[in-house]
Amino acid sequence: MAKSQGFELYALTIAYGQRHAREIESARAVARALTCARHLELPIDLRAIGGSSLTSDASVPRDRDLTAADVQTSIPSTYVPARNTIFLSVALGWAETLGAHDLVIGVNALDYSGYPDCRPEFIAAFEGLANLATRDGVQGGRFRVHTPLIDLSKADIIRRGLALGVDYGLTHSCYDPVESGAPCGRCDSCLLRARGFREAGVPDPLLLR
């Protein structure tokens, strides 16, 4: 979506000790497909902090009813403490060195599994921080955090991507892939992805392999 708007793309992937490291391979493939000016892979190991089933040996929730009221109002164990704050802070630092003022993050406030750092309020607060805590900001520059997916359903995201020529076979969503790297099909992220493709009325290319 950013590319279609004419932005030159600089992609950032954080290797934070996540158990679903398969996503890093997908990030490389996506960056190549988008012909990014640069794809920066940065290690910031959050396993020492803990507090998440994505950075520990704790079990990842599976087969949950994502429509249940208690599930929709609770924060699952897959929440990584302050992850998007950390990611955006690193992206902000890199943007300032590049002379860029537009950050793009794919947070979603509809199918977001209860994560507090995917909400519009968080994005607005971080954008304010970015303009207070940087040299460019205090010298009159204006940083903006773009969230093009924030109000879209998973089905709408899939439809928009297909219209833009996205190859979803390059993407990865699973929190806890099997040894081969294939999606487990049972974690919250897999269930949300499956629902999105089902509601969009198109097959998931990852499941056709």
Topology of this structure?
Layout: E1 10-15, H1 22-33, E2 38-43, H2 69-73, H3 83-98, E3 102-104, H4 120-132, H5 135-138, E4 144-146, H6 154-163, H7 188-200
Parallel strand pairs: 1-2, 3-4
Give a verbal description of the structure.
The chain has 7 helices and 4 strands; from the N terminus they run βαβααβααβαα. With 209 residues, it is mainly alpha-helical. It has one domain: 3-Layer(aba) Sandwich (Rossmann fold). It has a two-stranded parallel sheet. It has a two-stranded parallel sheet with strand order 3-4. α1 links the parallel β1 (10-15) and β2. α6 crosses α7. The longest helix is centred in the middle third of the chain and has 16 residues, at 83-98. The relative contact order is 0.14.
User: Per CATH, what is the topology?
Assistant: Rossmann fold
Strand content: 5-15%
**Residue runs with pLDDT of under 50 for 5 or more positions:** none
User: Helicity, in percent?
Assistant: 25-40%
Tertiary shape: globular
Provide the CATH architecture: 3-Layer(aba) Sandwich
pLDDT averaged residue by residue: 94
In total, the number of strands is 4
Which secondary-structure class do the elements indicate?
A: mainly alpha
Question: Which superfamily, in CATH terms, is the homologous superfamily?
Answer: HUPs
How far apart are the first and last residues' alpha carbons, in Å? Answer: 26 Å
Count of domains: 1
Descriptive key words:
209 residues; two-stranded parallel ribbon; mainly alpha; 4 strands; Rossmann fold; 7 helices; two-stranded parallel sheet
